Amino acid sequence: MIERNTFSPDWLSSPGETMEDILEEKGWTKKEFAERTGYTTKHINELTNGRAQITAETAERIARVLGSTAQFWLTRDAHYQAALEHQRAIRKAKEDADWLKELPLSWMKKQGWVRAFQHRGEQVLECLRFFGVHSVDAWRQRYPGQFAAFRSSPSFEKKEGAVAAWLRKAEQEATDMRCAPFDKQGFQGALAELRSLTRETAPSVFAPKLQNICSKHGVAVVFVAAPTGCPASGATKWLTPEKAMLVLSLRYKTNDHFWFTFFHEAAHILKHGKKLLAIEGVEGMDAKLEGEADRFARDVLIPRREAQELYDMSNFRFCSKKMVSEFAEKIGVAPGIVVGRMQNEGWLPWSHMNALKVKYEWIE
């Protein structure tokens, strides 16, 4: 990781310095320059000292007398003024350097979400650019401001920065995805096709298919690893009235967790309106909505009639991996999903049959 050191307040060349260099080459005094341009010596001093900005009229006069073009002098001054403003912004941003402690900054740098800077003020500005806000106060309103529902958990406040960074990265990726306008009936109708993807074991195979199917119905599915301190396994958020974001972190890395989380989040999109920010894995979500989403995911993956058959099979004394695999094939889901359901229902010990689950890993 390369840290940039671009803050250089002691070296900043003004257009006035360029004028003085040209005057020295020509052997002119500022008084003579003033006479040639029609300005007072005082105004020329202000121009060369950088205290007066160059207007369009001034640029035209300077160009006639010193050469080059009016556009050159206007551009030169604009760059200088922008650099001065950037320096002021960096100095002011340094006052908010403690905010960086709230963010998973090392993770964000490592993942390339933000560039690394030695100067704390410049690092603050870089993180504000990442979040798309002009100040830390604006960040607190836009990001932690969304988390009011989760603050019933005393521990959540310490995680706000990590959750906010994860959601922001997901927003960036989802915004870039092309999607058709949201179609509730179409998305609902695609569930069977999406469910069939659980049989695929390689994310490189099923992930593009999953994203493609969902994008046709206005849902942008993105995969973003959760940074240090972010407990989320999935989330949904409406980016616009016509586009929903569904983000998955692969936090638990097994196919039963992954697919349950996906269909849980799909339930929020289909059932719970367009104002809800749902984050799976953090405390404070509405228990009723979470219960509905859990039941939806459970019933999509293993419908109630098949669940009864699974319950009866689990009570069989010699329930084996072979029986589970055959049952999974019959109903069209991955064996690991059946194992996860049995474990969650208490029909199978957590230590049993985990070899039937598929594990996923992030590729760095």
Q: How would you portray this structure in words?
A:
It is a single chain. Strand 4 (234-240) and strand 5 (243-248) form a beta hairpin. This protein has 364 residues and is an alpha/beta fold. The mean pLDDT is 92. The protein has helices at residues 15-26, 30-37, 41-48, 56-66, 70-94, 105-110, 120-131, 136-142, 160-176, 184-189, 191-196, 203-215, 255-271, 287-301, 304-314, 321-331, 335-345; strands at 3-4, 116-117, 219-223, 234-240, 243-248, 278-280. The longest helix has 25 residues, at 70-94. It folds into four domains: 15-94, lambda repressor-like DNA-binding domains (434 Repressor (Amino-terminal Domain)), CATH 1.10.260; 97-142, no CATH class; 160-301, no CATH class; 303-364, no CATH class. Strands 3-5-4-6 form a four-stranded mixed β-sheet, sandwiched between helices. It is 54% helix and 7% strand.
Distance between the termini: 15 Å
Question: What is the rounded Rg?
Answer: 30 Å
Multimeric state of these chains? single chain
Mean pLDDT: 92
How much beta, percentage-wise? 5-15%
What class would the helix/strand composition place it in? Answer: alpha/beta
Q: Detail the poorly predicted runs.
A: none
